[in-house]
Amino acid sequence: MMAEAEEKEKKNQNSYHWYPGHMTKAVRMMQENIGLVDLVLELADARIPQSSRNPDIERLDAGKSRIILLNKADLADPEYNRQWTAFFRGKGFYVLESNAKTGAGRKELNDLVQEVCREKLARDRKRGIVNRPVRAMVVGIPNVGKSTFINSLAGKACTKTGNKPGVTKGKQWIRLNRSLELLDTPGILWPKFEDADAGMKLAFIGSMNDEVIPVEEMACDLLAVLREFYPESLRERYRVEWGDSGAETLEGIARSRGCLARGESLDLRKASGILLDDFRAGRLGKMTLERP
Ligand code: G4P
C-alpha cells in the first residue's frame, strides 16, 4: 500500500505536471460569463487536437451550442486536419479549421454560426424578437490563439458595444456583424495537467511554462515523437541521422548547427532550443503529433 502511494506521489512529481494557481480564478470568470452567451467557440490547437482540449468544457458550457475550431491549422499536417475534423464531426461536433493569424475561414464561420443557432433564432422570431444577434464567447487553453482570433474577427470595422441592460457590468461586446456579437474577454481553460503525455505535448507547442522542464529533456522527448510520426524531418532540416538515443541525435543537431560550448564541447542546451523553436515555428514542416 505504502509503495503504491509512493509510486503515485512520484508520478505526480513528473516534470510535465503543472498547475497554475490563477486558473481557478479563470474558471470562475468563465462560469460567470458563459451564462451570457448562446454559443461557445472552442479553440483547440490543430497540432494536438486532443491534448489541447479540456473535457471539463462539457460541464461548463452545458446547454450551449459549441463550435470546435482547429486553430493554427497552418502549422499542422493538412491530412490530419482533415482526419481530426472528420473525427470530431463523427462525434456530433461542429468543426472548422482556422488560422487566427490570417483570419481565414471567417465567412465559413459566419455561415456555420447561423446554422448552429438556427433553432434559437427561430424561437426568438416566434416570440417576436427579431435582429437579436447571437452572442458568442471564445474559450481555450493559454496560447491557443484566443486573442489573435478575437482581434482578427473584430478587425477595424467592428464597434464595441458598452454595457447593456441584463448584462453583467463591465462586459464588452464586439459587434462583428448584424447577427453576431463576441464577448471581448476570452474564457481561459486549463489543460489536462493530470495527464503526463498531454502535458508533454503542451510543452512542445509552448502552452506550458518552459522553465518548469529542463530543455534537453523536452527536446529528447520531442525527438522521440518526431521519430515516430515524421522520421524524415530531421534529415530534411538539419541533414542529420537518428542516433541510438535522443542525446546522441541532439549531438548531431548541435554539430550540424555549430552549437559549441566552452572548450569545444557541444552545447546541447542550445541545440535543444533550436529544435523546439524550429518545431514551434513550423520550420520542421507541418506536423500533427496526435492521431484520431
Ligand atoms: P491566447 O490569447 O490564447 O493566449 O493566444 P494568443 O492569441 O496570444 O496567441 C499565441 C501565439 O500564437 C501568438 O504568437 C499568435 O500570433 C500565435 N497564433 C495564434 N493563432 C495562430 C494561427 O492560427 N497560426 C499561427 N501560425 N500562429 C497563431 P506569438 O509568438 O506570441 O506572437 P507573434 O510573434 O505571432 O506576434
Protein model, in words:
The protein has 292 residues and is of the alpha/beta class. The chain has 2 domains: 19-184, 3-Layer(aba) Sandwich (Rossmann fold), CATH 3.40.50; 196-280, Conserved Hypothetical Protein Ylqf, Chain: A, domain 2, CATH 1.10.1580. The protein is 42% helix and 13% strand. It has helices at 2-12, 23-34, 57-60, 78-90, 106-116, 118-126, 146-154, 196-204, 215-229, 233-238, 246-256, 268-280; strands spanning 39-45, 65-71, 94-97, 134-140, 159-161, 173-177, 180-183, 187-188. Strands 1, 2, 3, 4, 5, 6, 7 and 8 form an 8-stranded mixed β-sheet that branches. The protein is elongated and about 80 Å long. The model is unreliable at 8-15 and 162-168 (pLDDT under 50). The structure holds guanosine-5',3'-tetraphosphate.
Question: Which features characterize this protein?
Answer:
single chain, 292 residues, alpha/beta, Rossmann fold, Conserved Hypothetical Protein Ylqf, Chain: A, domain 2, eight-stranded mixed beta sheet, 12 helices, 8 strands, elongated, binds guanosine-5',3'-tetraphosphate
